[in-house]
Amino acid sequence: MIKLGDVVKRIRSKNAGPFWITVDIFCGDLKVFNLVRNTITTSMVLQLTKVPAKALKRFELEGLMVVKFSFHRQAIQGSRGDRDMHGAQIANLFLELDVKVLV
Question: Is beta strand 66-72 parallel, antiparallel or unpaired with respect to 56-61?
Answer without folding.
Answer: antiparallel
